[in-house]
UniProtKB/TrEMBL annotation:
Protein name (record): DUF4121 family protein
Lineage: Bacteria, Pseudomonadati, Bacteroidota, Bacteroidia, Bacteroidales
Domain of life: Bacteria
InterPro entries for this protein: DUF4121 (IPR025189)
UniProt cross-references to Pfam families, sorted A to Z: DUF4121 (PF13497)
Length: 351
């Protein structure tokens, strides 16, 4: 039934709630409210401001904006609301995740209640249609760097603010469909255009907030909640289809300071004395060399190298071919090539 009350999150008109302990319900936010929390006709300026913000948010997040003057359409009869786990953590299970905090301050019941409240807040606000604050992104940059656990901080007017390598995000409640706001350290940051994210599933992720002692050294309590996972690949790749998800990326510099350098190419824990050494390595490791913007700098994409030392009896019974690569007199090497995972394993032995 339509009412003359408005949603305190999105400003849309509310329906009567079908839940006993609540009075009103917003189909847009998928949330029930008691009558003390909702807005009335006298709050119209606030309602209009909320509508404006929520309209832009929906638009940017890629959801078709339904009129904000009408209540959101009723859910289908068979619609099941996401029911997050009621009490995910006990003192015992939360201590396991917060060993040093427990040692310094001691996990209390109020920390457990906080963690459980956050888990409910996060898990009940997730969606497979709209990305929400705190979601996870499988990010591939245009330089081919793959970050499986990139973090979606919030939506700005030019897009989602995303962190490639985040620390555990600090969170606080945000009374909107997002459930939470994040304050995250880490780097680097980039902006991802709205509507470019593809839903790929769900995964557990760590969050934290100050524990019972408040803000102080080692005073944050961490917990895990399930979030939506999205995929994003930056357009215009610099290195074709090469990404660090499946390939090794080595930055090489060329020494042109002398005519006879000790190492002609060097970088990332690898060095080549001569052009021939590099060419041989590239032939064996399926390498491709790209020149980059800076002079005498290169990016080498190739298979991963794994070196394994095993007892001599085991080595003798290995059904693998021998190679002269990295072999020295008296120290033969057997080679295994994995073309699926792009790994070359070199086996040597000890007595
Ligand atoms: Zn609402």
């Amino acid at each position: 039934m339509k009412t003359k009350r408005f949603c305190p999150w999105c400003g849309r008109p509310l329906y009567k709630s079908n839940q006993k302990e609540f009075d009103f319900q917003c189909y847009n936010c998928d949330k029930d409210f008691p009558k003390t929390e909702v807005l009335r006709k006298t709050d119209l300026p606030e309602v209009k401001a909320l509508r404006h913000r929520s309209y832009l948010d929906d638009l940017w997040r890629g959801e078709y904006p339904h009129s904000h003057r009408k209540p959101y359409p009723k859910r289908r009869k068979n619609y099941v609301r996401i029911k997050p786990q009621g009490q995910k953590y006990t003192e015992h299970t939360l201590i396991k995740l917060n060993g040093s905090y427990h040692y310094d301050h001691g996990i209390r019941q109020s920390d457990v209640d906080m963690a459980n409240a956050y888990v409910r807040m996060i898990e009940s606000s997730r969606s497979d249609k709209q990305p929400r604050n705190g979601d996870m992104i499988r990010l591939t940059t245009k330089h081919g760097d793959y970050y499986p656990c990139a973090h979606l901080e919030k939506l700005y007017e030019d897009g989602f603010s995303v962190c490639e390598r985040p620390y555990i995000p600090f969170i606080f409640p945000h009374p909107t469909k997002n459930g939470i706001s994040c304050s995250t350290s880490g780097g680097a940051w980039l902006s991802v255009p709205p509507k470019a994210l593809k839903y790929v599933g769900k995964e557990e992720k760590f969050f934290k907030d100050w524990g019972a002692c408040g803000a102080r050294g080692n005073g944050a309590v961490s917990f895990k909640a399930e979030v939506s996972v999205w995929e994003y690949t930056e357009p215009d790749p610099v290195y074709d289809d090469y990404t660090t998800k499946d390939w090794r990326k080595i930055h090489l510099s060329k020494d042109v300071t002398t005519t006879k350098p000790e190492y002609l190419y060097y970088g990332n824990g690898i060095a080549f004395r001569t052009q021939q050494e590099l060419d041989e390595y590239m032939a064996l490791f399926h390498g491709k060399l790209y020149t980059v913007y800076w002079p005498n700098s290169f990016e080498l994409w190739c298979y991963f190298e794994q070196n394994v030392k095993i007892p001599i009896d085991k080595w003798k019974s290995l059904d693998l071919p021998r190679t002269t690569f990295r072999a020295k007199p008296g120290h033969p090497v057997k080679i295994e090539i994995d073309d699926v995972k792009h790994i070359i394993t070199l086996y040597t032995f000890y007595n």
